[in-house]
Records
---
Amino acid sequence: MTKPIIEIRNLTKNFGDKEILKGINLDINPNEVVTIIGSSGSGKTTLLRCLNLLNEPTTGEIIFEDSNLIDPKTDIDHLRMHIGMVFQSFNLFNNKNVLDNCTLAPMKLLGYDKVKADEIALNYLEKVGLKAFANMDVNTLSGGQKQRVAIARALCMNPKVMLFDEPTSALDPELVGEVLEVIKSLANEGMTMVIVTHEMAFAREISDRIVFMDNGVIAEEGNPEQIFKNPKEERTKAFLKRFNS
């Protein structure tokens, strides 16, 4: 059996005296697309942000390729280079053009020279349909274009896992499709991805596994067919009823 690339064990996260994650256990396998769904406040984004320590867990373990991210001896900055993150609000550098947004981290963290970094960045910008925009000011782009730049930027680090936090929630409805198409193409190429989304049709289409979170726990998980057509838990049924016509 394939060894998981990420193993989450008994993970808890408190903000003050409020317990947000209550003993999460979850494995992410190589080349798998795991989508996390659930109501606002269920802990989805907190869990995702724990996977690269943007949120530091209170207790538990996160093992990424045999290294425990929570061990103080772990070089978290080194491991983070292998875990790409795409945020709902893009987080681009507004004072840099599209190409420079993509080349900054590979030059600074991987030691690439400008020629190599540019070559890699242009390759990924072409992949997301934005090679012609390489020298554009990011402030002139649409939300969908900014999110595609953010995806290209993350890919320039050649990550082993990609994390997506509600990648379409800040977009106008007509721009959602172009971002989902890029994510779908990554799934088809075997990229390991963990996606927090409220796009149920997309989750159903793209996922190998769906994780439904409710009130800080994993209430149910399974393949899309199981979760969407035959959920076992009443909480899952109630949540999905809102999306099923």
---
Amino acid sequence: MVTRHAAGTLQSRALAAMSGVSQVSPVPSSVRAALLNPHWRRAIEEEYAALLANQTWDLVPRPSSANVVTGKWFWTHKRRVDGTLERYKASWVLWGFTQRPGVDYDETFSPVVKPVTVRAVLSLALARSWPVH
């Protein structure tokens, strides 16, 4: 068997990324720098549009005793398997550590189930002839 690496058809991500360095805008260090670059500006606009479309928040008047949870922009290059640039990605992330339990939030439960857990439970139900709803 000849692997892709042995055949010379597999290029490392670093090498592939270096071949297109002149075409890729560097990750910005500030919002101001990101907004000056059309690629990063478009990524920010796409993230903002997605947040609005998903109805992530409601704009309400700020109560005087309220703690405002702030956030930060993160930027990254999303790359294909061969290392070439797929797209520019901007993410708005809230700083949850500024929240206070009992004041800003009451519950922290998030119903997330890993696929491996679902497969294990279904396998167990099948082995024991349990009904599955």
---
Amino acid sequence: MSRVMSQVVDEISAMWLAIELAQRGEPSPNPYVGAVALKDGKIIGRGYHRRAGADHAEIAAIKDAGEAVRGSTIVVTLEPCNHHGRTGPCTDALIEAGVSRVVIGAPDPLPHAPGASEKLRAAGIDVELSPLGEPCAHLIRDFTKAITRHIPFITLKAAASLDAKMATESGDSKWITGEAARREGHRLRSRSDGILIGAGTALADDPELTTRLVEGPSPKRFVLDRSLRLPATSKLVKTANEVPLYILHSESAPEERRLELERHGARLLSFDGSLIGALRAIAGEDIVRLLVEGGPTLHRALLELGEVDEIAAFIAPSILGGGETMEYLPPLTIPSMAEAIRLENVQTLALGRDLLIRGALPQKERS
């Protein structure tokens, strides 16, 4: 429900509404942005960036306001763009619309053409930063990481038992969680640009990695397979012409395997063999939000690398037993409780008998 509780609103309330509007879009690889047009203390227009190539939030709010937009205030979660991309500069649209004031939530983390605020001021428009800069910056944290560091925003997703096992000792893992939890897992996929698994998981589970249980697009699929072990008979390769499949391999992978997989529609990405190199190759395919589904070896490596941003853990009320090889995470070296990895902004969701625990990892300085 909107935080705007009455017809007469202030700029703070309007910014909260803009933040809520922003989250309705699916704009990747662009950021989530929302905007509200105000005049005489009343909302006259609303907008958000629905998808890449569609109107930016400010343009949508201007159109929604119509002729009344002249002399209004535009409250927007992200600094307006000042360059020609799939659409024209929002700075030009704001000037042409005759708005008198623009309130910005978060500065553009890496503007294609700097000087947006200065351009607006030069046209006689009052420009001010909102005190809600922190929640607005949080809204685009995935975009900020991808555009400034060329590494996707990473969510680890796993399903485990109460004793932290992902499979029985025989390797049976279908299904640890119930149907409601699996649907939510597919919903996470539909909100991601890409999904990544390792070659071991691809060979053991033969997954499809689609969103067949929910409405919504299937993400691009990535398999980290340095030596190209994935067979052409796998479900992933068989569906490569329906949902894009990218196989990340080392430069020394056999050429005949590359040619065979390419003949079946797979797209081959060569990288330097390092995990950070693989992530940068993935980001190069317009991937901002990356869901990593497994297995435990890949999860541990990403945690040790310090590039995990969120964890979404589905916990089933069952005990599977078995050895250490079936554990969700192989042992991490954490010397003391003070150094434990503690999630922030934790959310829990009951899904039938299962429980989803989702939270962010503390952000540290990264090179």
